[in-house]
Structure formats: structure tokens, C-alpha cells
Design a protein that fits this description.
By secondary structure, the protein is an alpha/beta fold. The protein contains ten helices and ten strands. The strands form two sheets. The protein has a five-stranded mixed beta sheet with strand order 2-1-3-10-4, with helices on both faces. Strands 7-6-8-5-9 form a five-stranded mixed beta sheet. Keywords: Metal-binding, Signal.
Length: 254
């Protein structure tokens, strides 16, 4: 009798493990740059409708922070980065299948304020008054792009003492929207979705194009779903959403 009970318990345990594995396969985990939050949010219901049995879990943050989480073992199936450098590092370290990496969007930097300004970008930045929100220049793609752009224009050193640093693109936008800073340097896509900031003008481009690449995990638990979401993102529907939310298509060269 004890042998029968023991066998039954073992069978139930194995069945439970099988069910757990099946549930894991039904989950699609995406690590996505914070600046993509609204665009991806627009595509979520489209994906859920075509994949009703797949649970979609999205982790937003700075691309550099997301890469660090991936390197520390955080589970993910698809990485949507605002930084080609972070994608390359993740692929070189074996976390991303390099053959799946594809650019799906580009962005630009703009200077924004909480009110209308008639001056151009350079005049506003050279004016000694007013605080400016920017991304962390040593760890956040937005901040790295910002410093590169302002260095190229010979403006970075002049801003010493005026800068307020944000942990990601959305925090920088929030600083300006809330009035915590007078100005902010953000992505054009973030300015496009905010009704609380005015664009003063576009910053000059730095040496590094702001390209958003996508890549599937080398050890993805749900490769099929990751491929399906990537197909949605790079298809006609996804391309239109990308443009609607202020991004540019990589081939536009704008």
C-alpha cells in the first residue's frame, strides 16, 4: 500500500513539473527601453488578441540597466534596446542570438520646456539660467547620446551646475512636466506623447546614431512568441505605431 501511495505521489509531482513547464512556455518576457512604453503599449492588445494563451510580461527601464539585469540572470525572451552598444554587448556575451538582432526604430534628441520659448536651442543652453534634466551620462543611453551631442556642439562644459540627472528617459520627461526642472533633453518620441512640454528645438546629432535594435534571447524559453512579437513590431502595423509615436524608421535616415 505504501508503495502505491509513494508511486502516486511521485506521479503527481512529475505531472506538476510538467504543468509548470507548460505554463512557463506560455509566458513571453520582454525587456524594453523605457522610451518605448507607449508604443509597445499600443501593440500589446494586438498581440494578446492573436496570442490569447500567452501571458505578456514587460519590464521597462534604461537599456543599460536592463542589460545588467540580463547579465545577472533575469529571465527574458526578447530585448528591445534604445542602444546598439548594449545590444552588442549582450550578444557578444552570449545572452542574445546575434542572428536575430534587427533595428526597428530610430530617434532624435530635442530640448523641451514647460512653456513656449522663442529662442533657439543653442541660445537657451548658453543662457546661464535654468536647470536642465538629462539622462545619466555614464550609464543611461539617453544621457550618453546627450553628452555626445552637446560635446560635439561645444556646449557640455558650459552646463556644469545646471544639470539634473534622471535614471531613464521617462524620469527626465517627468522632471520637466512636473516643473522640477526648467528644461529637459529628451527623445523626440517622448516629446510627441506629452501635452505638458513644448519643443524648443532639435539637438545636433552626435557621432552615434540613436538606433533601437531588437534581439531574441539565446536561451529563450518562448522563442516562438518572441519571434511573433518581433514580427508584429517590424511589420506594417508595428512600423506605423513606431512612426505615430514620434520615432523614425531606420531606413528613413532622418
Amino acid at each position: 500500500m505504501k508503495k502505491i501511495i509513494a508511486f502516486a505521489a511521485a506521479a503527481m509531482l512529475l505531472a506538476g513539473c510538467g504543468a509548470s513547464g507548460a505554463e512557463e512556455e506560455k509566458t513571453l518576457r520582454i525587456s524594453a527601453a523605457a522610451s518605448l512604453m507607449d508604443a509597445i503599449g499600443e501593440l500589446e492588445p494586438v498581440f494578446r488578441e492573436s496570442h490569447p494563451d500567452t501571458e505578456l510580461v514587460i519590464n521597462y527601464g534604461s537599456s543599460t540597466k536592463l542589460r545588467a539585469q540580463i547579465e545577472q540572470g533575469a529571465p527574458f525572451d526578447l530585448f528591445l534596446s534604445a542602444s546598439s552598444t548594449d545590444m552588442e554587448k549582450a550578444a557578444d556575451a552570449g545572452y542574445i542570438d546575434a542572428e536575430t538582432v534587427i533595428p526597428f526604430a530610430e530617434n532624435r534628441l530635442v530640448l523641451v520646456s514647460a512653456g513656449t520659448m522663442d529662442s533657439n536651442v543653442e541660445d537657451v543652453l548658453r543662457n546661464p539660467g535654468g536647470s536642465i534634466a538629462v539622462g545619466q551620462p555614464d550609464s543611461v543611453p539617453l544621457g550618453i547620446y546627450t553628452k555626445e551631442s552637446l560635446d560635439t556642439a561645444g556646449l557640455w562644459d558650459d552646463l556644469d551646475g545646471r544639470l539634473v540627472y534622471g535614471k531613464d528617459a521617462r524620469q527626465v520627461l517627468t522632471y520637466v512636466e512636473s516643473g522640477n526642472t526648467d528644461l529637459g533633453i529628451i527623445y523626440r518620441s517622448d516629446a510627441a506623447i506629452s501635452d505638458k512640454v513644448e519643443v524648443v528645438g532639435e539637438l545636433p546629432p552626435g557621432d552615434t546614431p540613436i538606433v533601437y535594435p531588437a534581439g531574441i534571447a539565446e536561451q529563450a524559453e518562448n522563442t516562438a512568441a518572441a519571434e511573433a512579437f518581433l514580427e508584429l513590431l517590424t511589420g506594417d502595423n508595428g512600423r506605423q505605431v513606431i512612426v505615430d509615436y514620434g520615432f523614425a524608421q531606420p531606413e528613413d535616415g532622418k
